[in-house]
Amino acid sequence: MRDHTGNERHGSSEALPTVWHGRATNRAQWLLAVAGAGCMALGIQLAVGSAWTSGIAPLLMSVIGCIAAGLLILFGTLAFVHVAVKVDGDALEVRCGHIGLPRRRILLTHVVGAEFAAEVTPREWGGWGYRWRPEQGTAVVVRRGEGVVLRLGDGRTFTVTVDDAEAAVRFIRERLHLSATGPQATGA
After folding, report:
1. pTM of the full predicted structure?
2. Distance, CA of 67 to CA of 109 (rounded, Å)
3. What are phi and psi of 14, to 5 degrees?
């Protein structure tokens, strides 16, 4: 029998974990999704329950407007209820919402640095969702809190809010260090 005390990693040939997974969730987005569903219900109620006596054009515009606004709100918010982040030996992959769209994959060969951000807020990025600001870069912000900031080789940055972002940054830095020293050690 072998005793697993947790101190075995020092001096052992144990391999590093190969994949890191993280998530972030924003339950407040569900309230907005309910508002979108309410808008759709209002549009359907107008279409079904109206006497259509005031003319077809105004009523049709109201019905279409309510249903379209409801769909936009509903699907726009459900896409950013949560985010799933996966880092493996090759890339960082971000998937939003229940169907995984929008999706972003960044190869680690394009990453020159990874930093931990203790407080990423929707206010600094202009709201929740997939954001781009010329002076800041690109971000996926689903909630206020900690996040990962990647500095890319082309000078841009990519930020994502995720739980346990410090562990993600350590994992990415370990991968960058391994990939940076591997070819140099064999080529020298």
Report:
1. 0.71
2. 44
3. -65, 135
